[in-house]
Amino acid sequence: MSKSNEIKNYYGARLEEFIKSSNGSALTELRKTAVSDFAALNFPTTKEEDWRFTNIEPILRTEFTPVSETASKLTKSKLAQFLFHKSDFATVVFVNGVFQKQLSKLDAGAGVVISTLEEALADHPGHVTQYLGKLAPSGQNIFNALNSGLLRDGVFILFKKNTVAEKPVHILNIVDSDSHVLAQPRLLVVGGDFAKGEIIESYESLTTAPYLTNAIVEIVLEENAFISHVKIQNEGAAGFHISTNAVELKTASNYTSYNLNFGGSIARNTINAAFAQSDAECHLSGLYIGGEGQLIDNHTMMDHALPRCNSNELYKGVLTGNARAVFNGKILVRKDAQKTNAFQQNKNILLSEDALVDTKPQLEIFADDVKCSHGATVGQLDEEALFYLRSRGIGKEAARSIMVAAFAEDVVNNIQHKHVVEYLEEKIAQKLHV
């Protein structure tokens, strides 16, 4: 029996055990569907086009243990190192993938609801039943099925109609275990009509042991909603990170994403944005900095189905040592999506001869009245610019550091909150040794 089949049987048994012990929950049907989908799916291999450059064999070597404990031994003081100093944010804390209410600060001001999914099913059933598991269905891939099948509970965030949130909501995901943990946080966010909200999602680690984070975030923007979403992936060196971020945009809504990747042995981010109604706008910005032994994979999809929608995407990468990166970005413009404006660009700097990036920007257009472009660049630092800096008395290493930091911070500086930007600038400096 192959290792892939062995690990599938292992997780399959965990799924069956969990289903038997969780009957009666309002989430049971979602879980049962996911268990059925899991049985029908397989773990991806490099023979599949979407995984051609990302070999997950290292992830399949270990039987990661789903977490059942609901209480954490962590204290708020220990969490302080992962918060943004001097910033008054609402905070949602997951430890090993399990929501920790006692460590969280759920007051984001009037008009913002933060609750568990179970609570939301009772208080806001329409939103949950309409969207949970629909944007990132369990049948889409085996990792989605694993998350939904073992879903104990997650977090629901609602920015009510006509609400401008007083505070950003920080979702802090921490792995803290010496055992091989499977952490599976789940988040559903709904921006009501004419609502405006900000989400900052971060992934951190307090362990050197191998673990797997398998996260799903589903975000719905109703008419004229505006949501800004910053994701910071800073997993431990032995950690693996698989995530799906699925977004649905309705009439005249606006979604802005900043996806920052620094950590993890293997990190795979999937972002799918679907324009479900007309006149919406979506901006995806990304930065990945990979070092020795790392693989960072970003897959994005802009699905333009209806007219007069705009999308703009810029992803930048800096790779050192023998790091590898993958960028696979697709813009799909369907037949009815006339007057679409869609632009995509991927830029990479390789700081060593052993670093490698596989970049694949794609356009698939079935409408005739559109403005679309895409492109990718892979190169080294500009020698003329280096010479310019050195001719003004700046040393070679200092000049290289200035240029790399400027390239990386081009994405970061567009983030609104200065304390988040300062945190990211510190991470960039640590990663690049500048």
* Fraction of residues in H or I helices: 10-25%
* Overall pLDDT score: 92
Q: How far is the first residue's CA from the last residue's CA?
A: 48 Å
Major sheet characteristics: 11 strands, mixed
Q: Characterize the overall form.
A: globular
How many H/I helices?
Answer: 10
In total, the number of strands is 21
Uncertain runs: none
Quaternary assembly = single chain
Instruction: Determine Rg (CA atoms, Å).
Output: 21 Å
Question: What class do helices, strands and sheet pairing give?
Answer: alpha/beta
Strand content: 35-45%
Helix and strand topology:
Elements: H1 3-21, H2 28-40, H3 57-60, E1 65-66, H4 76-79, E2 90-95, E3 98-99, E4 112-116, H5 117-123, H6 125-131, H7 142-149, E5 155-159, E6 169-175, E7 181-183, E8 186-191, E9 196-205, E10 211-221, E11 226-233, E12 239-249, E13 254-261, E14 266-275, E15 281-290, E16 295-304, E17 310-319, E18 324-333, E19 340-350, E20 356-365, E21 370-379, H8 383-390, H9 396-412, H10 418-432
Parallel strand pairs: 1-7, 2-6, 5-8, 6-9, 7-10, 8-10, 9-11, 10-12, 11-13, 12-14, 13-15, 14-16, 15-17, 16-18, 17-19, 18-20, 19-21
Antiparallel strand pairs: 2-3, 4-5
